[in-house]
Amino acid sequence: MHILIIEDEKGIIDFLKQGLEEEGYAISYATNGKEGLEKALQHSVDLVLLDWMLPGMSGIEVCKAIRKERQSVPIIFLTAKDTVQETIEGLKSGANDYIKKPFSFEELLERIKVHFRSNHAIEKLTLGNISLDKNKFQVLVDKKEVSLTQREFELLAYLISNKGKVCTRNKIIEDVWDIHFDYDTGVIDVFMNAIRKKLNLSKDEELIKTIRGVGYIAND
């Protein structure tokens, strides 16, 4: 599961990143509102941890903008703003939860788990005769289970989550592999060939189509 942290205090970012990665979450972060909004809309993000006071755009503005484009992604405010009115304003902007600084990491972790559980419906993805359940780590083709490796599963889930959008090789490397430096993107083709073979898809199959020189697109 991919969590995006939008926070301008490096100490808090480092603290959250270390703790959440130890719990098995993939973490990316942004240090200002504009960058955070771009990452929230352009990347495959499962939950957003959002500060209120941010350079460029406020957390409220970011929250409203994310919610317009992505209805179901959970958003949790982490902020020193602590009046009742401010809490109400944060929730009205589209946030799912509101935690006041300083906070307990253990409490935050449990809240994250609650939101992932309550948001489980979007963890079930479909593409034609293919169904994918993130919670069960299960892929079915015509209701028959197909065994994928973790990386194959993550790549397939990413493509289906971004159904109808061209996923470039560079974006896949960043969002699925969490690699943010020059890397041989040819490895993606190796995994795609394995996925197609296991799902019995040809290279000309419209469900997952190769965009030559660019990447892939999933379409029903």
Short description, anyone?
The chain is α/β, with parallel strands linked by helices and 220 residues long. Helix content is 41%, strand content 22%. Helix 2 runs parallel beside helix 3 and helix 6 packs across helix 8.
Widest β-sheet, arrangement of strands: 2-1-3-4-5
**CATH class descriptor name of the largest domain:** Alpha Beta
The number of distinct structural domains comes to 2
Stretches where pLDDT is under 50 for at least 5 consecutive residues are: none
Q: Which whole number gives the mean pLDDT?
A: 86
Give the end-to-end Cα distance, rounded to a whole number of Å: 24 Å
Q: In the CATH hierarchy, what is the architecture of the largest domain at level 2?
A: 3-Layer(aba) Sandwich
- SS strand fraction: 15-25%
> How large, in whole angstroms, is the Cα Rg?
18 Å
What is the chain-wise order of helices and strands?
A: EHEHEHEHEHEEEEHEHHEE
Number of helical regions: 8
Task: Please provide the count of β strands.
Answer: 12
CATH topology of the largest domain: Rossmann fold
Per the principal axes of the C-alpha atoms, what is the gross shape? elongated
Structural class: alpha/beta
- The CATH homologous superfamily of the largest domain is termed Response regulator
**Helix content, binned percent:** 40-55%
Protein name: Response regulator
Domain OmpR/PhoB-type: 122-220
Pfam family, one: Response_reg
Domain Response regulatory: 2-116
Protein described:
GO terms for molecular function: phosphorelay response regulator activity; transcription cis-regulatory region binding. Residues 122-220 form the OmpR/PhoB-type domain. The modification 4-aspartylphosphate is found at residue 51. It holds the Pfam family Response_reg. Helices cover 41% and strands 22% of the residues. With 220 residues, it is α/β, with parallel strands linked by helices. It has 2 domains: 2-118, Response regulator (Rossmann fold, 3-Layer(aba) Sandwich), CATH 3.40.50; 123-218, Winged helix-like DNA-binding domain superfamily/Winged helix DNA-binding domain (Arc Repressor Mutant, subunit A, Orthogonal Bundle). Helix 2 (33-42) runs parallel beside helix 3 and helix 6 (150-161) crosses helix 8. Strand 7 and strand 8 form a beta hairpin. The longest helix has 14 residues, at 105-118. The radius of gyration is 18 Å and the shape is elongated. The strands form 3 sheets. Strands 2-1-3-4-5 form a 5-stranded parallel β-sheet, with helices on both faces.
